Amino acid sequence: QCQVAVDLDEYPFSPSDTKPGFLSRFVKNFKEKTSETSEITMNNYLFLGKPLQEEFLFQRIWRRTPKPANHLVKPIYRPVRVQAQLHHNYLKSGHSIIAPDGQLRMNHYWGARLQNWGEDTPKVIGMTQEDRSMEDVLKVYLSCEQWLRKYLE
Predict the structure, then answer these.
(1) For 108-132, what is each residue's pLDDT tens digit?
(2) φ, ψ for residue 84 (rounded to 5)?
(3) How far is residue 54's CA from residue 109's CA, in Å, rounded to a whole number?
(4) What is the 3-state secondary structure (H, E, C) of 79-128?
(5) Measuring CA to CA, which residue among 69, 51, 70 is closest to residue 61?
(6) Taking a C-beta distance cutoff of 8 angstroms, is the pair 15, 102 a contact?
(7) Burial class (CB in 10 A: 0-12, 13-18, 19+), 89
(8) pLDDT digits over 65-84, tens only?
(9) Mean pLDDT of 93-116
(10) CA distances from 113 to 1, 7, 109, 116, 121 (A)
């Protein structure tokens, strides 16, 4: 069994598999390749800029850094093999691998922190690129969310 350590503004994302269940498929594939992997880390891509007025966080910001923003990775790990810590775990056994960015990354919705919560600046625009790769995921999410609201009425 595995655990994922993420914050509320962080979403594991696969550019190569945007269908429901992508994370389970990714982990299963790695577990089948090597039983020695104790932890898979995801590189941190910041989504920046002034949020649009939308209901859900990941539909508010469509600009991200083109490369990992820093060395703060988030793990998927086997709890029996890891002593969990914030950002970097201590391995009791096995090894850690970094997920290839084209297969799995962390979308970190940072918003307008770099511009003191104000309007987008030339600096933020210059350090980001448009990224609408979550649109397919958003469509599935919104259809489920609409069904759930009707069901709960």
Answers:
(1) 988 778 778 888 889 889 999 999 9
(2) -70, 135
(3) 14
(4) HHHEECCCCCCEECCCEEEECCCCCCEEEEEEECHHHCCCCCCHHHHHCC
(5) 51
(6) yes
(7) buried
(8) 999 988 888 899 999 999 88
(9) 89
(10) 35, 16, 10, 5, 12
pLDDT of res. 128: 92
Query: Span 30-51, mean pLDDT?
Result: 85
The alpha carbon of residue 74 and the mean position of all alpha carbons in its chain are separated, in whole angstroms, by 9
Residue 101: exposure state from Cβ atoms within 10 A (0-12, 13-18, ≥19): middle
CA atoms of 132 and 63, how far apart (whole Å):
8
Q: How much is the mean pLDDT over the chain?
A: 86
Neighbouring C-beta atoms of residue 10, cutoff 10 Å: 19
